[in-house]
Amino acid sequence: MLERYLTAASTYAHWIDYQFLLIAVLVGFWLIVAEGMMFWLIFKFRARDGRATQYITGEETHLKRWITIPHILVILCDIVIIVPAILVWYNIKQVMPPADETVRVIGQQWAWSFQQAGPDGVMDTADDIRTVGELHVKVNTTYHFELMSRDVVHSFAVPSFRLKQDALPGRTISGWFRPNRVGSYDIQCTQMCGIGHGLMAGRIIVETPQDHAAWLLHNSTPAVAGQQALPSPSTVGMDGLATMAEVRR
Asked: Is 69 strand, coil or helix?
């Protein structure tokens, strides 16, 4: 189960992993310091016979520094976290590298459907390929996606890509990913979208260029696939055309 979160299958997955690691290290450090100090104070100033309780107003200068110094250090740590977080957000959400291909992702109760260009490489043409529950993409290729919902709010999440984007009815939301590892990766919906929410799963299958080209040709419209395989008249001589005519008869 944890493999989906440990596997990094997109180019920006490691950016997000490093950001989480940075947060975990800094927050974990201060957690240990704070808990250690708390238990030390509990032990040092525990109730003892013959020892009067000390009353502290909070105005003592020598005690204020126990609050002021850690406060300043925590703010500095916040800056260390915020600066790379802004850079990661900007590079993933605000800047989209040039697309090699575009896919359309549609969420509905309770399935994911996809549309992508066929062998001609152009969207919204006769050879477009439409699938449900399974998206085939090519490794080391930058994809832009157009995300939309047919009914309620869904969330398109691919844990291995570190990708998560809400799909809103009436809006088309753009994003991108670049898979860098061949394999099959889970798609989830991470917004409660109805009684069938738990069944709304899918897969992204990342293939080599050769396997992806074969998949495109196999799954495109048969008539279009035949046109792809048939030589054009400009590349065949008159004798070739006559031979083809004989074959057809």
From this structure: helix
Report the range out of 117-126, 192-201, 214-223 with the highest average pLDDT.
Answer: 192-201
> Are the C-beta atoms of residues 172 and 147 closer than 8 Å to each other?
yes
* Of the candidates 136, 149, 72, 153, the residue with the CA atom closest to the CA atom of residue 107: 149
3-state SS class at 42 = helix
Indicate whether 228 pLDDT > 50: no
Per-residue pLDDT band for 220 (boundaries 50, 70, 90) equals confident
CA atoms of 172 and 144, how far apart (whole Å): 12
Phi, psi torsion values for 148, nearest 5 degrees: -150, 165
Q: Quick one: which H or E segment has residue 243?
A: helix 238-248
What is the domain partition of the chain in residue ranges?
A: 3-94, 101-231
Q: Provide CATH code, domain 101-231.
A: 2.60.40.420
